[in-house]
Amino acid sequence: MGIYGYYEWRILAIAGSVCSPGDTIVEVGANVGTETLGFSDILGDSGVVHAFEPLPTNFAALKLTLELNNITNVILYPLVVGSEEKKLLFSVPADEQSSGSGHIVLNQPLKINRDQIEVNCTQLDSLLQEIQDVKLMAIDAEGSEVMILQGASELIQRDKPAIILEASQKLLARFDFSLSDLASYLTQNKYMIFRINRLGLKKNDKEIAGSKSNWLCLHESKSGQLDNIKRYIRSCGLAPRIFGLNPLEKI
């Protein structure tokens, strides 16, 4: 935990509120699995987590963690996720402390060096048969969120999953996108956007448009889940860490 940091409990709180045993979660940018293990517990043996992590060192650490904990409901993919099927360059983080800062590199020739590796990129829509009935997509992709969503348009239209993602103007600009582009794609697909706060959610508006934050994106047809999600976040954040009182104690 000293190397990789504390897991984001709000993401698990939202997952616990929208998912049940037997459901499916897609995790893009699984890193070393700090949320993957929680997703696995939430879904139980009858559910499945489809976890994508392209950086070999992170992938190996995640694979070992799953093996040590005898977890069998997580399917791992050593792939980048994007808008098309192709080979790409991936920028390797400088050290373990920044293991989650790796990102794809566009508009450069495929020339491998110590700071970049070649990776395979896939679209989530190419895996529609393998990935069914998705209740949640959790995306941490250092700026490539728009491309990931573009490559998952059929999955999104089919399943209308809740979507959690990092929204950063600086990171999106790497790929010539903006927060407005990200928000526009989601709203065009009938998603409501909320900023995940310390103990709840805030509706997306001009006040937060330029800030870096985690977003919860909920399809309009799932608006009935909103109050329960808010209650779950508050319960997880305020209740003592005692089994039976705090929902996270079950994860």
Task: Describe the protein.
With 251 residues, the chain is α/β, with parallel strands linked by helices. It has 8 helices and 12 strands. The longest helix has 13 residues, at 56-68. The chain is globular and about 50 Å long.
Give me the secondary-structure category. Answer: alpha/beta
CATH topology assignment: Rossmann fold
- Provide the number of structural domains: 1
User: What oligomeric assembly is this protein in?
Assistant: single chain
Helix content: 25-40%
Distance between the termini: 17 Å
Reading off the top of the CATH hierarchy, the class is best stated as: Alpha Beta
Radius of gyration, taken over Cα atoms and rounded to an integer in Å: 17 Å
What is the averaged pLDDT score?
88
The general outline is globular
Order of helices and strands: HEHEHEEEEEEHHEHHEEEH
Count of runs of 4 or more consecutive helical residues: 8
Q: How many beta strands in the DSSP annotation?
A: 12
Indicate the proportion of strand residues: 15-25%
